[in-house]
Structure prediction request, 292 residues.
Amino acid sequence: MAFQYGLNNLRQIGYQILQEINKMNQTRGLYHLGKLFLSGQEKSELNELEQSFGGLVDPLYNARNAFINWNAQCDLELSNYKRNQQVKNFEREKKSVSKLFEKKRPDYAILSSKMQSTLFALEILERIAVRKDAKKEGITPQGAIEVITVEKAQPYTALKRIESIFQNAQGYVKIMDKWIGKHTLDFVLEVPVNVPVMILTGFIEKKSKTKFSSLFERIKKEKEGKIEIRKSEPSEFHDRFIITHNELWQSGPSLKDLGLTKWGIISKIGNTSTKIDIERRFDNLWNKSKDL
Prediction:
């Protein structure tokens, strides 16, 4: 497994850059909102200051420099790979971000969107690298004491293979998954009625949003309100976890895709300190997230 740890580190650094971009985007929005409350004279004076000093101040200085270094690190890492389609896709997305950073005042929203696309392409590249190395070397993910493999186009089999995780859940079930959909709730239905479920996500799959809302309300009624979904800032987390009182599982693909469009693995992590750390991160994000 020569390269995936390098890709993983690059992805983490990339998300830090994305957070910096998003922070500046939010600050810019508040700045323009504040300008609405200025008098005509105050706006005129502020515009003169912006024209005089705007070229001397770079709001994206930190993100811009971090990206330049990250871009060079990516190129160095990719020199270890054959230039297949996944590598080309990532390089193309990365180049589009680089072009935006070359501008003095790029559109922050577009820059954020392009950076997210770049990190998504990197994630795909990382997954493929991990799978190829794992298959070649016959190893399981680091720290895993049990691994379940689920093939694509087998949604029923996927449910049967991992339903015990949910059926035997004790205390609670906490799901951290950036993308959720109707298929996610199929797994939640396996959780005992008296066990509360907390789902932390960033997005709901558009094509199943209507069915998802309807099914969620039915499950909520059946579980007497013991299920909550909160939406977090998508850039705050990436990996997918299932946490119960005494177990921690990590999923490769999102639960909404497992056994449908993607194959993947679900790994049980036996390291107690890892479980404590992941659950602490979940709780911190949960407390500052909003109800769906």
Notes: The beta strands are 144-150, 173-176, 179-180, 197-201, 203-204, 227-231, 240-244, 248-251, 264-269, 290-291. The chain has two domains: 4-137, 144-291. The two ends are 39 Å apart (CA to CA).
